[in-house]
Amino acid sequence: SYSRGASAEHHAALRAIPLLSEAGLKVYVVPLKENEDPDSFLKKYGKEAFEKLLTEKLSAFSFAMQCSASEKDMDDLQERYAVCLEMFPYLMSAGSEGLRQELIKELSDFTRVPVSSINLDFTAYQKKQKNPLKRGAKKEEVAPELKEEALPELRSSSAEKLLIALIFSFGEAM
Prior knowledge:
The chain is an all-alpha fold and about 170 residues long. The chain has helices at about 10-20, 40-45, 45-55, 60-70, 75-90, 95-110, 115-130, 140, 150-155, 160-170, and strands at about 30, 60. A two-stranded antiparallel ribbon has the order 1-2. The longest helix is centred in the middle third of the chain and has 16 residues, at about 75-90.
């Protein structure tokens, strides 16, 4: 569970997720306690506890939903709907329509907003937005901490190396 309000590290992770997904990478987030990083966790709890922690990974989509909801009153319909709207960029990066519909169902279950409402508004969003990079935004504006020169390295990294890199980059806030 995350504290109310997403941290700067959470926001950085949220900006990087769509870019990493578009680069063809599966992105997961491993939650750590506040002020904890993978190194301190390993030293304090050991390898077995760290391996168990890795089994508790969140999908990038679930992490983004939880971060968005942490800043909202989820008893209020308008705020639950705002979570849906904030998730639309992540839905854009889904690799297939089947996956997108599964994510919309997960979003609906999480927010208690009907699937039909999410689908209707997402279709309108798709027509307007398509892709932030195609609208003229530079990659640095979408995710300033993910420079173009870093992308080839990320593409060639194994999934395990990427996971560890993300843990080290964003672990302190989770």
